[in-house]
Amino acid sequence: MKKYLLTVCFLALTASYASSAERPNILFIFTDDHALKSLSAYGGPLAKIAPTPHLDRIAKEGILFEHCLVSNSICAPSRAVVLTGKYSHLNGQLTNKGSFDGAQQTAPKLLRKAGYQTAIVGKWHLKSTPTGFDHFEVLKGQGQYYNPMLITNGRNVNHTGYTTDIITDQALKWLKQREKKKPFFLMTQHKAPHGRWEPALRHLRTFEDIKVPEPSTLFDYYSGRSAASANHKMGIAEDMGPNRLMFRYSSKFTPEQFKIFDGHFRSRNEAYKKLNLQGRDRTRWNYQRYIKNYLRCVKAVDENVGRMLKFLDESGLAKNTVVIYSSDQGFWLGEHGWFDKRWMYEESLHTPLLIRWPGVIKPGSINDALVSNLDFAQTFLDIARTESPNDMQGRSLKPLLNGKTPSDWRKTHYYHYYEAGGHGVPIHYGVTDGRFKLIRFSDENLNTWEFFDLKTDPMEMKSRYSDSKYNQRVAGLKKELTRLRRQYKVIE
Question: 25-198+288-404 has which CATH code?
Fold first, then answer.
């Protein structure tokens, strides 16, 4: 009997290793504040001006999701949702404040337990020490664009160069040195294009002679909505400040870097001061300075995605590696006169999602279902043929990758923002079905609702909450909002 049991255990172990060898690798590339409109695969007025060919390649060879919505549009909470597959109120990371509870269940831990070699390189932004990884190299806090310090398996290691490049360098280094017998799960997470937007030296003059088209809502006076949006503190004209506009720099440069960087901006800054611009002219100047630096940071991301894809091709790993590209949330590129995120409005709510899986995903696929960063953890596990725990709240995207959206797929999405005061954005929550959106501002000083018809008003310029024409729609979404809050255990 004992001999029999030993034989069974051996065979099971052997089968486990064989299965592991067959399972696909997962490369998750994650950026910070990447607006859909700055990724050319999504089209729009910036696509020809600032193309992203390497990111577009993932879409061309895989699938593009048109409606990937975040559950809480702010950095740390979004990352916690990706790791846990749970809404912020359950994983404990409601805001950027506080430290992520690394003792809780996460997708990397489950993948590691299932035989995957796990690693994270780049931006962590969760204050606690990463858990569930065989290897980690992470920025302290936000990090900086030049000469970053990476906390490497508990040890501080200084690097010289541009952070987007260095994160890719270190990710490739790990890929080359990893344990080859195991499938891998690698999270390559960039600081870019988060503010403050300091471009790579090689991109300082990129877009210099181009006038980037202004968004139609650059001059928005917020008259069609509640007082919530009018109280913002994220205006391109009034709130950007000298650091965001490159009148001052955030990074610590080497003397050689500073000579080139400052040599570029100083003369242009002095010329601007002499103009003494006011009103709309100042807004327009600020917008051009901001959007060009933002797009320059995106360009470096795209180049480094290309480096990762090239390595997969040349190493023979591409055929059995799922490449997933996304960002922690969307971002405003001047729409409504804003920069930043946080709101449940469209530009902030939507985040890019591109996935390539050779032999599984039909190249050039486009999916319009409502998906979410809440789904990422279960998708990782499903790709790895590892069972998801019952307490995760998302749903695997794997059926959608196969070209089949289940008939019972979600028809509505729940959103909840908790960090009161940041850039003047109040706590709010809401529901959308893709066309209609209902938002509740629960702050006692506001105590108000907004409702939008995205078909007739895609830029969300006028709330229709008090329009009797929509009474039935509003009532229906209120009912759905209550149902979702119970489903996700926001309320009992």
Answer: 3.40.720.10
What is the DSSP pairing of strand 413-417 with strand 428-432? antiparallel
Flag whether pLDDT at 8 surpasses 50.
no
Residue 11 reports pLDDT greater than 70: no
- Domain ranges in the chain are 25-198+288-404, 417-487
The 10 Å Cβ neighbour count of residue 408 is: 7
For 271-283, the pLDDT digits (tens) are: 999 999 999 999 9
CA–CA distance from 124 to each of 130, 169, 308 (Å)? 8, 17, 20
Residue 492's pLDDT band, with cuts at 50, 70 and 90, is: low
The reply to whether 25-198+288-404 and 417-487 are identical in fold is: no
Span 417-487: which CATH code?
A: 3.30.1120
Strand partners, 338: 235
Report, in this order, helix, strand and coil percent for the chain, each rounded to 5: 40, 15, 45
Dihedral-angle region of residue 145 (phi above 0 means left; psi in -120 to 50 means alpha; beta otherwise): alpha
Q: Alpha helices, DSSP H only, in 88-156?
A: 88-91, 107-113
Distance of alpha carbon 164 from alpha carbon 145, whole angstroms: 7
Q: Which residues is 31 bridged to in the sheet?
A: 327
Mean pLDDT of the chain: 94
Report helix, strand or coil for 406: coil
Question: Which of these, 98, 56, 60, 62, lies nearest to 80 by C-alpha position?
Answer: 98
Average of pLDDT values for 167-186? 97
- What's residue 296's pLDDT? 98
Q: Which structure tokens are listed for 278?
A: 């006011």
DSSP letters, 319-350, are: GGEEEEEEESS---SSGGGB----SSSHHHHB
Distance CA 416, CA 33 (A): 18
- Provide the 3-class DSSP secondary structure of residue 449: strand
Residue 391, Ramachandran bin (φ over 0: left; ψ between -120 and 50: alpha; else beta): alpha
pLDDT digit string (tens) for 414-471? 999 999 888 999 999 999 999 999 999 998 888 999 999 999 999 999 999 999 999 9
pLDDT of residue 394: 98
Helices (H), 92-198: 107-113, 163-177
Cβ 134 vs Cβ 115: under 8 Å:
no
> For residue 212, what is the DSSP state?
P
Per-residue CA distances from 232 to 226, 422, 441 (Å): 12, 9, 14
Instruction: Write the DSSP symbol of residue 375.
Output: G
Q: Which helix (H) or strand (E) holds 363?
A: none
Give the C-alpha distances (Å, rounded to integers) separating 121 from 86, 144, 166, 363, 408.
Answer: 23, 15, 10, 28, 36
Once rounded to an integer, what is the mean pLDDT over residues 64-75? Answer: 98
User: Mutual orientation of helices 75-84 and 376-383 as an angle, nearest 10°?
Assistant: 30
Instruction: Average the pLDDT over 9-18 and give the result.
Output: 39
Q: Using the 8-state DSSP alphabet, how is residue 425 labeled?
A: P
